[in-house]
User: Fold this.
Amino acid sequence: MYSWRRQVLAKDMKKIILFIAAILIIYLVLLSAPARAIYKIYSYDKSSTVVGIAKTYRVHAGESLIEIARKFDLGYNEITDANPGLDPFVPGKGALVKIPTSWILPDIAAHDSIIINLSEFRLYYFFRERKSVKVTTFPIGLGDEGFDTPVGQFKVIKKIVAPTWYVPESIKKERPGQPSVVPPGPDNPLGSHALRLSLETILIHGTNKPWGVGRRSSHGCIRLYPEDIPRLYQLVPKGMKVTVVRQPVKVGVRKDKVYIEVHRDYQATNLNYFNEAVNLLMKRNLMGKVNTNRLARAVKKKQGMPVDITK
Assistant:
């Protein structure tokens, strides 16, 4: 009898400890997050598929593009592609930086799910609020070479606070001495929250290495900044659809103007970017409104941000 009671008490104590650990992790994440008010929700309208507004920022002493990217909720790829003439690590005090906080929404049929575009290292979440559709977006890190994040249709099957990391055998081989289990805490690469997908080896989770956002740095999972994952976790219900696509070229419209957004996707090795752009524009009956010289320049530069190509 006493042995049974001790086991029950031990289980209860373990739950209490894990709960306290989860609260502490969330508190520390929010405390250490960069001061910013970038987290935005946009209204979705099929007639206007460009959201957000790009801006400029003047570099302070000692700042790198990596720090500036995080300040504006951008990935490493976005800030460097938009500013090819600047050193990512030492851009220089007073340098003017393009902040590409504007995006063409991915071209998909159903706007009621999580959409992950591998080509741009970005996650979009479309959801219904009353009678309207809203969208919010976050930069992400993806699977490294040989551990590619898969394209396909999935679902969120489990939501986890303060996840424990059960280290895969592939990582143990890479890193001899790696423990089999990493408990919740600052050394856990899953961060403070995780969403497990129906392809169970893949998670959408936080990270203890924020510099990996906007890079191929995981073993297939999708990583968000530590300050972003609690927000996504709160918004997304269990069972939500997740669609992973590869769209290096996107076209959109806003206020009767036509825009194109082109990303350097090193995995799209056989893609003719210009032909892809023309095909997309023709599909949406927009080619007649386009200045082809502007289109050609935008495709050549591949700056990963919407460019006005209207006549």
About this structure: The longest strand covers residues 152-161.
